[in-house]
Amino acid sequence: MKKAIRLVLVVSIAVLLGACASSSPDVIQRGDAQRMAKIEDAVVLSVRTVTVDGSQSGVGATVGGVVGAIGGYGGSGVQREAQVLGVLAGVAGAAAGNAIERFSTREEAVEILVQLKGGERRAIVQAKAAEKLEAGDPVIIVTTGSKVRVTKAPK
């Protein structure tokens, strides 16, 4: 049982650390530092709040299933009954672990519709930033590799 408690603690710490990962436009990834980025001028057409669904990498389900199986097995009673209980607890743990992972990695974001100088329109979803964008704001679209972020244009 002590092993199961330790495993739960390790999983909890991993989930908390995963939730701390940021996709904020205010945070630049280390790999993007000192790289040339493409800049495009645009004007904001609209901004709306959206929720980016959490990830389901399978880690939460795997860990939840293992913890559930270990906790459910218990080792008491008839061997076959204990095994069945362990399997059922493992399935329940996997479902719970998957839900915990998905919920803990959800993120509030904004969908920004912009119009480029050439007339093209684009939609960009990014995490909420300290900088508030509104319709009519002149912005620049910064593209580094396959990552895009929107920020107010310098005055």
TrEMBL record:
- As given in the record, the signal peptide range reads 1-21
Keywords tagged on the record: Signal
The superkingdom listed in its UniProt entry is Bacteria
Q: What is this protein called?
A: Glycine zipper 2TM domain-containing protein
